[in-house]
Amino acid sequence: MAAMKQLENQIAVVTGAGRGIGRAIALKLAAHGADIVAVDLKTDFVQETVDETRKLGRKAWAVAANVSEGASVEAAAGQILKEPGRVDILVNNAGITKDGLLMRMSEADWDAVLDINLKGTFLFTKEFSRAFLKQRSGRIVNIASVIGLIGNAGQCNYAASKAGVIGLTKSCAREFASRGVTVNAIAPGFIQTAMTDKLSQEQRDAITKQIPLASLGQPEDVAEAVLFFASPAARYVTGQVLAVDGGMVM
Questions:
Q1: Residue 215 vs residues 5, 189, 236: alpha-carbon distances, Å
Q2: Which long-range contacts (CB under 8 A, 24 or more apart) does 118-122 make?
Q3: pTM of the model
Q4: Among 235, 248, 100, 242, which residue's Cα sits nearest to residue 181?
């Protein structure tokens, strides 16, 4: 039983926890003993995640924040550091896509994706960094993407944001290491979520052909990797990028 609860008494903050990968991460950490702060644009978006977490016997809080706005993130962090009172694990998962070929991409679509995916990760990490460094412990896990490693036509903004997350991860890992705080990134490949459900069968078949394991991943596959980075087993691992992609970019 002890092994099951390796995150007992830890508080995990998960952004974009309302659905898909974010929800899977929150529930995986809760199943291993963590209490969960589920963050999304509106608290309604995370109510289901909060309810499921409580069913697992863990505490859960719903917090609204626009991850791309400094004042909003600051207010959310203040609320979290007051109510649960501390943070042991931060998972920066909130992300969006606004795909289009570069020559037709609007400045607004560029800004929206960079602001949420990259700036949001920066703002949340910054807000909790003082608390992490003061307690001389903490795990930060950033959700990047294989697209940040290999690029993709029609996703210049998304690829740039996720490559940025990887660079941010490595720099923060160097800055925080002396205080025992680890910072790692996960680069999911094609995972079955609402985002990929929009693909046609033809697109799905073309993607599957590029994946040696010949199938899309599940949100749980990403959640398991987050659990590893958040767990005592990964105490000596920092600044790493783990591709969870069925072998796509090996």
A1: 31, 11, 31
A2: 118/160, 118/161, 118/162, 118/164, 118/165, 118/168, 119/67, 119/68, 120/15, 120/67, 120/68, 120/73, 120/92, 120/94, 120/95, 121/67, 121/92, 121/165, 121/168, 122/168
A3: 0.96
A4: 235
Summary mean pLDDT of the chain: 95
Cα 181–chain centre separation: 17
Among all chains, which residue has been given the structure tokens 């995972």? 191
In total, the chain counts a number of residues equal to 250
Q: Residue 150's CB: how many other CB atoms inside 10 A? A: 15
DSSP for residue 19: S
Percent of the chain residues past pLDDT 70, beyond the cut:
98
Give me the domains of the chain, ranges plus CATH numbers: 7-242 (3.40.50.720)
Residue 217 and residue 129 in contact, taking contact as beta carbons nearer than 8 Å: no
Phi, psi of 182 (to 5 degrees): -100, 150
Tell me the catalytic residues: 158
> Token pair of 218, please?
């599940």
Give the model confidence (pLDDT) of 127-184 as tens digits. 999 999 999 999 999 999 999 999 999 999 999 999 999 999 999 999 999 999 999 9
